[in-house]
Amino acid sequence: MENQEDIKKSIQKVVLAMARDPKNTELYHELAKYYAMQEDYDKVVSVYETLLSIDAQDEQAILNIGSIYYFEKEYRKALKYFERAMVVNPSNYLVYYNLANTYAEMKNFSKALRWYNRTLDFVSTEPEIYNSIALLYHDFEDYVEAKAYYEKALSLDPQNLTALVDLGNVCFKLFDYDGAFKYYSQVFSLEPDNQTVALCLANTLSLKKDEARANQYFEKALKLTGDSLYRAYICYAISKSDFGHYDEAIELYKKAIKLEPDQSKAHILLGNMYSNQRKFAEAEAEYKEALKISQLDPDLYILIANTYYMNNEIERSIYSYKAAVGLSPENDEFKLVYIQVIEDYIEESRKDEVVAEF
């Protein structure tokens, strides 16, 4: 791979060549390539636009501009160029695939599906197209259809990791834990050092109430290298709590907190566990630690308020409910709870006054 100095020299050579032969479109493609290597995509687009002023039918230039706008999340601009490419070469299936992907990112389900199906009219043996259609259904929470398309991708490529992983995820969401375990296991056999998949297997076995094997995979996940260590500690703690091993769960939550002290999730889940055990002081302490990290999270104020309320500290709960409503005034559920607690408090106060009179 060329270093930056070599790239600069190559750019200078191409620019000199273009000065001698300004109509040579290959030179524009070469210059755009070097600017792309510098990740200067504004210049890439500028070069391609100049090229298109020379040859308006240059399909590769049109597609590349569209792709740049796609990756920069400027989807409407991307559509403009992909549609232009379709006019230039209506038999290029990649044009339809790019249109479909763009509409999928724009959350336009019907148009995305239309262009994916049009892509299949040209090429029906490419597993990644079926994976993309499956992901579209997945994103719109139609897990049954998503599963069918992932299975089609897998029929074309039995070791397709995207299809295997996502089939596991879809089965998991459909509460088909046997299916999830089957597909995650296939991935793990292909990638035995994959920490995330080890964790998926552990979570699946935990929900299958297979505690011993779940623990084995949790331990594997903790030993493997990856980005899921914090999540592994949390999921292991949840599993330990579900099986009634609360002291072990506490230690795992504390390890998660030590690993990533700027994350609030472990504090919140540990607080929830304490609250369920009616250890309200401990729950309050964890929620307040989370609040130091996420000071403007109205849900945390609700959790603190609930803790006060369950501990019969009604006045303190009212202040916390009020804070949650102040942070999220559009949340009608928060308002209803706040009003109900105030009404209950007033009603209880009236009862106390009546009792006092007697």
The helicity comes to over 70%
Give the biggest beta sheet: none
The pLDDT mean sits at 94
What does the overall shape look like? elongated
Strand elements, count:
0
Task: Report strand %.
Answer: under 5%
Q: CA-to-CA gap between the ends?
A: 91 Å
Number of helices: 20
Which spans of ≥5 residues are poorly predicted at pLDDT below 50?
A: 353-358
How big is the Rg?
A: 29 Å
Which structural class do you get from the secondary structure elements? Answer: mainly alpha
- Spell the H/E element sequence: HHHHHHHHHHHHHHHHHHHH
Give the topology.
Elements lengths: L3 H17 L4 H13 L3 H14 L4 H13 L3 H14 L4 H13 L3 H14 L4 H13 L3 H14 L4 H13 L3 H14 L4 H13 L3 H13 L5 H14 L3 H14 L5 H12 L3 H14 L4 H13 L3 H14 L4 H26 L1
What do you see in this structure?
This protein has 358 residues and is mainly alpha-helical. The chain has helices at residues 4-20, 25-37, 41-54, 59-71, 75-88, 93-105, 109-122, 127-139, 143-156, 161-173, 177-190, 195-207, 211-223, 229-242, 246-259, 265-276, 280-293, 298-310, 314-327, 332-357. The longest helix is centred in the C-terminal third of the chain and has 26 residues, at 332-357. The termini are far apart.
Q: What are the key terms here?
A:
single chain; 358 residues; mainly alpha; 80% helix; disordered C terminus
Summarize the structure.
By secondary structure, this protein is mainly α. The protein contains 20 helices and no strands. Helix 10 runs antiparallel to helix 11.
